[in-house]
Amino acid sequence: MGYQALARKWRPRDFKRMVGQGHVLRALINALDKDKLHHAFLFTGTRGVGKTTIARIFAKCLNCETGVSSTPCGSCDTCREVDEGRFVDLIEVDAASKAKVDETRELMENAQFLPTRGRYKVYLIDEVHMFSGHSFNALLKTLEEPPPHVKFLLATTEPRKLPITVLSRCLQFNLRKLPIDEISGQLMHILNEEGIPVEEGATRLISVAAEGSMRDALSLLEQAISYCDDALAISDVKAMLGTVDRVHIQVLLKALAMGDGKALMARIAVMAGDVVDFDDALRELLGVLQRIAILQVVPDGFGDSEPGEEEIMALAKEITPEDVQLYYQIGLMGRRDLPLAPDPKSGFEMTLLRMLAFRPVGANTTISQGTRVNSDPAKQTGQARSSVAPPTPTPEQPQIAPVPFPANPEAWPQIVAGLDLVGLARQLAGNCTLTECKDGLVRLCISPSHRQLAGDKRREQVERALCSYWGKNIRLTIEVSTADSAETPAAIGKRTENERQQAAEQAINEDPTVQTLRTTFDARIEKVVTRNHD
Ligand SMILES: [Zn+2]
């Protein structure tokens, strides 16, 4: 027998040998063994997770010459023809290429005819969401009144694009991406069977790169075998995959933890010498940060320890969770902006320098000032360098010392500030101006727009407050008038508050740290809140 591609050679021939998708297989096996078969199945899931494999095994189960069961014999003509992909009653359709109405209609019309060789015609329609509206109608007609000898296996990566009429007539199964361990285990099994020695951890690298697809994993394994001389060595697999050496990432994070800019730049230079793909490096860095974040919350969070785990554990103790979050966020932004950088290396450099510059000064982190990139001491006095203490304009503090009687009209705001008043009575006093003050008589003026404040009860409250303010009997009258143009205490308060707000907004907008935050994180200033610290 000539050379066979691994993916073909190791394509599972029965459900028992399939890796992963246990929940789907169990349902299919039960249905087959209890002879309760639905006529249409819909498999959703990404590419390379086993849709075609399941369909082929299913076709064998239905058509094996030894009878319908979940365990086809694998040796009869039918089983062999299915395995070799030439069984006439297994009709594989790629909807992406057969989207024309006529062809679909013809296909569906043919479904009415009895199978040529087997008991059932099995239609595997891949990427079924690519069908046009007319093609769906043709499919739907057959789904509505399915001939007893037809089974449909529909597969799609985008079930949301399917009409509800089709969805409602199918049993739906979600095929999951395969976990790294399952892929890795299968690769180890294959290598053992093929008699190829492998360094521990090499299959894991391939499994991670395969991103949940067994098909991709097998084709990567194939490449790795031809790339490596006799045994699968980690270094070779890394070189083949273009995997960024974990050591680089660990050194970078260590340098960040120490605030050591020199070590950081030196390592980036080494990486550039190694012709590292800096986008991959950022992705790897993010992956390590994510592992660190999990380890900080759940110290034994990973049952599946991998090479270099102790170093990551050590970093998890050296970097604070806040820093990990910050680095992660900056790393994400850095990846997004990498294509915009003059070149990948400088984009990577700036991202790492940003992590260094924004590193909050915490209690349990060591700082070596000399190596800090941005060591402006004025900025480091706060707890966190990325937080901005808004400038606090000195509030115009009202003088509480009593104004002697009789008082000038200009002194009214000062008097109001010293009155023992709350609520609406305080509002009343605040919205008045003083027009006369003599011989135990105080005359106030209020504008027509505030006249509703000047009720008798509140007038009496203000009068009592004035009596106790000056320690003498005062008679208070309030006139509604527009005649007095002096500024009321309330108006003065409002004006100064506006001025203070404007000053604060301007100061914050001009703050260099805020400007960097904006460009780094796409930050937006929602609202500037000023507080009186009196
Ligand atoms: Zn058979």
TrEMBL record:
Residues 367-406 are annotated as: Disordered. InterPro entries: AAA+_ATPase, ClpA/B, DNA_pol3_clamp-load_cplx_C, DNA_pol_III_gamma-3, DNA_pol_III_sug/sutau_N, DNA_pol_III_tau_dom-5, DNA_Rep/Repair_Clamp_Loader, HLD_clamp_pol_III_gamma_tau. The keyword Nucleotidyltransferase applies. Its EC number is 2.7.7.7. It holds the Pfam family DNA_pol3_delta2. Belongs to the DnaX/STICHEL family. DNA polymerase III is a complex, multichain enzyme responsible for most of the replicative synthesis in bacteria. This DNA polymerase also exhibits 3' to 5' exonuclease activity. PANTHER family: PROTEIN STICHEL-LIKE 2, REPLICATION FACTOR C / DNA POLYMERASE III GAMMA-TAU SUBUNIT. This is DNA polymerase III subunit gamma/tau. It comes from Candidatus Kentrum sp. TUN. The gene is dnaX.
